[in-house]
Amino acid sequence: MTRHYNFCSGPATLPLAVLERAQSEMLDYRGKGLSVMEMSHRSSDYMAIAEKAEADFRDLLGVPDNYSVLFMQGGAATQFSASALNLTGRGGTPNFLDTGIWSRKAMAEAERLTGAHLAGGSKSNGYTATPASDSIQLSDDAAYLHFTDNETIGGVQFDRLPEVNVPLVCDMSSSILSVPLDISRYGVIYAGAQKNIGPAGLTLVIVRNDLLEQAQDSIPSMLSWKVMAENGSMYNTPPTYAWYLAGLVFEWLKEQGGVEAMAVVNRRKAEKVYRAIDGSRLYDNPIAVGSRSIMNIPFTLKDEALNDPFLRESEAAGLLTLKGHRSVGGMRASIYNAMPEEGVDTLVDFMAAFEQRHWKG
Fold it and tell me: Is 359 a catalytic residue?
């Protein structure tokens, strides 16, 4: 078996140790004679899996006791709707920062359901930098401020939290567990699993408990954070295998030294790629240095005729899924927690060799 380096933005690479453990437990989970996929979510064996996963996740991020952790379905996009419906039952308008495609999608969904207010954003700088706190203009009736911590497609990431006097709601799908967080500064954090947590289909939601009482009366039960909190995320059958695999990832992260240790490695990996881009004649990254993502690094080739050769040769070298999103073009290297530093080193070496072979400028 040959394992390549997968730079996909999601579903993304998983730790090899996690895949191997899941493989070893696939047919017979710890002598129980069945797979986790076949277990009742109400069984004592599965409840132990679920409870440990939540405990490890709380430990990794230092989630305070006055916050609920929910394991939900539907991906982060479902939380675009859920956020608006869970937080406007007492009135108020959702406010948004527009820093890229995913924040705009979240705002569009809220606009359709409850109305929305654009409080600031990055359009004026071409989506190359996050907005300064003093540029944010909340509506008089702001229910919360939503922002996307890390724009997966554009490669723009906040280096500081917006300073506002309303709850912060953050889509952290492509950056959660990559650096330490002060959870107490947020009202809500949600994250699709398929980047730094596990397989697609699972979404983690961290919500301050006082906000559980602010939902609209008509909210569907499956979107209600309060319903999910009261039912231990098991109002219906949850995505049990994805929850199990997420738990294995949390265990693996703790074995690596936790989020603090991962942050050191993640910053070092990102620095290597940015150094390779900034020091080259062929590659370019348009994002302002202070707003550069450490998880998703887009770059372009100054000669677009070299795009296809770059992709063909990189794939042949075992470097997969480097093509940029169709909306922005170019290339993108997603270097989540599970991307080993050796993979980044291999990419950097390939980029230098490709430039030497092909650049004629």
Answer: no
Q: Which of 56, 98, 195, 323 is catalytic?
A: 195
The per-residue pLDDT for 327 is 83
- Fold of the domain built from segment(s) 257-358: Aspartate Aminotransferase, domain 1 (3.90.1150)
List the structure tokens of 154: 């554009």
Of the pLDDT bands very low, low, confident and very high (cuts 50, 70, 90), residue 328 is: confident
Out of 102, 225, 243, 252, pick the active-site residue: 102
Q: Is 203 annotated as a binding residue?
A: no
Per-position DSSP letters for 15-77, written without gaps between them: -HHHHHHHHHHSSSGGGSSS-GGGS-TTSHHHHHHHHHHHHHHHHHHT--TTEEEEEEESHHH
Q: Is 236 annotated as a binding residue?
A: yes
User: Would you say 171 is a known binding-site residue?
Assistant: yes
Q: Would the annotation count 225 as a binding residue?
A: no
Q: One fold for both 16-255 and 257-358?
A: no
- Among residues 56, 98, 149, 171, the one annotated as catalytic is 171
What is the model's pTM?
A: 0.97
pLDDT band at 158 (very low <50, low <70, confident <90, very high): very high
- Domain 16-255 architecture: 3-Layer(aba) Sandwich (3.40)
- Can you spell out the DSSP letters for 143-209? EEEEEESEETTTTEE-SS----SS-EEEE-TTTTTSS---GGG-SEEEEESTTTTSSTTEEEEEEEG
Domain ranges for the chain = 16-255, 257-358
Round to whole Å and give the CA distance between 205 and 172. Answer: 10
Asked whether residue 216 is marked as a ligand-binding residue, the answer is no
Question: Is pLDDT of 1 > 80?
Answer: no
